Amino acid sequence: MRSEVLRLYKTIHSWTGIVSGMLLFVCFYAGALTVFAEPIGRWATPPARGAATIAGADELIAATLAARPDAAKDFSLYLAADGRPARLAWRKSREDAVRWMAYFSEAGELRVERSHPSSIAAVVDAVHRTAGLPVGVEIGENITGVLAGLYFVALVSGLILVLPSLVRDVLALRLSANLKRMWLDAHNLVGVASLPFHLVIALTAFVFGLHDPIYAALDRMVYDGELPKIMRSTSPFAGVRRDEASAATKPVAELIAAVAATSAGFTPKGLHYRDMHTRGATVRVFGEDPRFLSRGGGFAALRGATAEVVNVDYLPEAQSSWTKIVAAFFALHFASYGGDIVRWTYLVLGLAGAFLFYSGNLLWIESRRRTARRHGEGVMQTRSTRLMAAATVGVCLGCVCGLSVAIASVKWLHGHVDDIEVTSRAIYHAVAALALAFAFVRGAARAGAELLGVAAVATAAIPAASAAALVAPGLGPFASADPSGLCVDIVAAGAALGFAALARAARRRSGAGPSDSVWSAVPASGTGAEGAPTESRATAPEPR
């Protein structure tokens, strides 16, 4: 391939990566955690003790509606699972932020109380969808859609760059004293080995992030403004007419049995009721079927008064051809298929993707110094290079510290704040902003090692909160009722050790590496000032 063509693709690859790399790191790091959103959510949820099982669900509904008839309009019944009893959840209206919950205590008494879900999984998901920016989810999704487009361009241009040396270099990881070569080998190895995963994520993230503008363009150019009407006609309950005449709603067991007759492998997790005890009552039985690709689960739509199944388009085993295509899009992005093996694989690939963007920025920054040396020039670390290095460290490690602190604080916040989700988001953004400011003040070399130390401590605080619940129950934190909570603690403890090891390596590199590097905390000899041409250790040739 002609050298000028390769230079063009190298320029495209470098700048698309530089422009989007830091925010994509945030998307991938948070996205890797969202794969295990359910275990994280259960870890952060106080254990609930109660008596109702699926057999007593009808009694629970009747008792709750007798005490709170306003809930009959729209409520969800969550079936007993994961050590939690059956419970009802509702809001007075869609605009009302206050959630209510009802369940039977162990003594069989109805408990109606304000719900305080930890929602930490929703916070991690919001960071993933907004790239950690302090904006609304809708705006954040549009931004991540654009980032996904740049990400796709960086992938294609990077692949073209490594093609000439694909066999010789791309699967080589040369562990030597030449750190830049080792980072470049690791960057290329991770990029090529996980290319199919990255292509899928780039394409699906582009569509998810820009679905509103895409739909608006289709409505204008293809459907002549009829798209909203078409979408309403495909609603699962499009064939059910509203009828407020009084009619009993079928028992829970009968509704579930009707769905089982259509798909025996479907596992129901709950039922969503609307207009209960009317002829027009509708029920959505939602759950999962891991045998099929789906949009994070599935549901069947029924008439509440007759238990007639009226729509199975979203039931994994019976979904339509178009729904299967859409479901595949969701499943491939969210890893909602294949069970734990696929989720662990996505976690590893997601973290590897975060490494890909972090290492890409480090390589670009270091290439300034190598280019100056190759041309026989004195190495000058410019202000822009130092700011770029500080921003890379601050944004990436700020995301790691922010998420760890937000998760670790949840068990301490219960019972002390009304809206844990809002508080957790504020904690994340405050920690991330402080980390970024700290990186600019301390410089990339010192801040890199120190923020990794903070990340180790913050991540260790996650299992420490669970340990505090066992050692000193009166302090406030609670032990998780679900066994998956212990897995969260174990993984967090392992991650904390990993961050501590990285902090030690970064500290050693900042003190013993070439002093003309932006990653050195030692002033270049002969000048004593940052950014000046360097000599001695700085100008000694690095191993190649």
From TrEMBL:
Key words of the record: Membrane, Transmembrane, Transmembrane helix
Coiled coil: none
Top-level taxonomic group: Bacteria
UniProt name for this protein: PepSY domain-containing protein
Originating species: Methylosinus trichosporium (strain ATCC 35070 / NCIMB 11131 / UNIQEM 75 / OB3b)
Membrane-crossing residue ranges in chain numbering: 12-37, 143-167, 188-211, 344-365, 386-414, 426-444, 451-471, 483-503
Pfam family, one: PepSY_TM
UniProt keyword Transmembrane present: yes
Residues annotated as signal peptide: none
Positions of the UniProt region annotated as Disordered: 510-544
